Amino acid sequence: MKLGVNIDHVATIRQARGTRYPDIVEAAEACRRGGAHGITIHLREDRRHIQDADVFAVKKWGRLPLNLEMANAEEIVAIALKVKPEEVCLVPEKRRELTTEGGLDVVRDRKLKQTVARLSEAGVRVSLFVDPDPRQLEASLKVGATCVELHTGRYCDTRGTIRKRELRRLAAGAKLAHKLGLQVNAGHGLNLDNLDGLASVPHLDTLNIGHSIVARAVLIGLEPAVREMLRAMKGIQQHAGR
Ligand code: PXP
Question: Distance between CA 6 and CA 213 in Å, rounded?
Fold first, then answer.
């Protein structure tokens, strides 16, 4: 299982004061030294953390594959087509949300197919951020995605029987996505305390984790925080016998 580190919140600290530090490429490099397999950044339409220049800078640095999370908005799609990250993960975006809420409605969104095609033709692998709902997974394949990122937010935010049900949905979703030939990633809200549940979710290729790693980095540094998460991921894989 691979780890993509989302470094949006390194930019959040910089934007809070309008400084030039902390440097986003230095953060990407620290993640690489810590063993990360990829860097994820989310260029939001409101530019609340990551800025256009960050996307170009991380791509130019180029020492790890770049996964660009973004809304299906023409202005952002145009930037993605210029930068050509290794992967784009399309996400729903609302202006007033604190962070991404819920997955894409691939079944009903008629604009997705064309964007997936444009990005794919430019050589960018396209992932769709979806809830582990069979209809959304089947629709993801139909619109041409090669990968899905299962939304783990509901699992992370709930407790007890609801959490157990969410975990079962994630496991079933991962099985179906794999059967459909889609690469299965997962992310949102994952941290050292809730990661263990994912031992029951098969076929996971990459976990995209951001906030909890950057928060931990404030106390122990980014490189050790990445190593710590990778150790925890190895632990759950051993537990699952994978
Ligand atoms: N995956 C997607 C699609 C996201 O939108 C986010 C948040 O930007 C993440 C993963 C990372 O979530 P977190 O910061 O909660 O680890």
Answer: 8
Q: Does residue 97 fall inside a structural domain?
A: yes
In a domain, 234, yes or no: yes
**Residue 58 included in any domain:** no
Alpha-carbon distance 143 to 120, whole Å?
11
CA dist., res. 174 & res. 153, Å (int): 15
CA pair distance 205, 113, nearest whole angstrom: 24
Q: CATH number of the domain that 123 lies in?
A: 3.20.20.70
pLDDT digits (tens, 9 = 90+) for 8-58: 999 999 999 999 999 999 999 999 999 999 999 999 999 999 999 999 999
Candidates 218, 221, 213; CA nearest to 195 is 213
Ligand 1 center from residue 6 Cα (angstroms): 7
Using the mean position of ligand 1's atoms as its centre, give its distance from the Cα of residue 91 in Å: 10
Domain-located, residue 180: yes
pTM, to two decimals: 0.96
Directed axis angle between helix 211-220 and helix 222-239, to 10°? 120
Catalytic residues: 42, 69, 188
CB distance 209 to ligand 1 below 6 Å: yes
Asked if residue 72 has its Cβ within 6 Å of ligand 1, the reply is no
Number of domains in the chain: 1
| 140 CA from centroid of ligand 1 (Å) | 19
Tens of pLDDT, residues 96-106? 666 666 899 99
Give the range of the structural domain holding residue 196, as residue numbers without chain letter: 73-240
Which one-letter DSSP state was computed for residue 50? -
